[in-house]
Automatic annotation (TrEMBL):
InterPro entries: CheY-like_superfamily, Sig_transdc_resp-reg_receiver, TCS_response_regulator. GO terms for biological process: phosphorelay signal transduction system. PANTHER family: RESPONSE REGULATOR RCP1, RESPONSE REGULATOR RCP1-RELATED. Residues 8-136 form the Response regulatory domain. The lineage of its organism: Bacteria, Pseudomonadati, Pseudomonadota, Alphaproteobacteria, Rhodobacterales. Keywords: Phosphoprotein. It comes from Roseobacter cerasinus. The modification 4-aspartylphosphate is found at D65. Pfam families: Response_reg. The keyword Phosphoprotein applies. This is Response regulator.
Amino acid sequence: MTAAVLDTVLLVDDDKVTNLMHTRIIRRSALARTVDVATDGVAALDYLQTRLAAGQGCPDLILLDINMPRMDGFEFLENYSALPEESRCSDTLIVMLSTSVLEADRARAEAHPDLHAFLNKPLTVDDMLRFAETSAEVRDALHG
């Protein structure tokens, strides 16, 4: 199994300890060059628009929490889906990471067309390996 290297991972979570822990896991996996953090959905949308405007492209992976202030994970997905096609990141994997055990949250997440997966926290190195491989497959399919 050869793992692809992700250029950028965006963590979208308001919990500093979770962000620190997930950043360490991502770095330990050695599968991502850069880990960026947005503390809510508004900051994540701003981050994406700023990167695109600067010609930096989209992150390879967005790890999205559900419960955050200002704009939660579901609201982020709805706002992201409403963006014009040129402002969306077609080859970015969006994964919801949550502590929620509610089946309604899982069902709502899995029904969203822009969401790749719904996983329970915490993130693991094995999760990162799967995401890196899937990201490479998506890029290959979209860009030949």
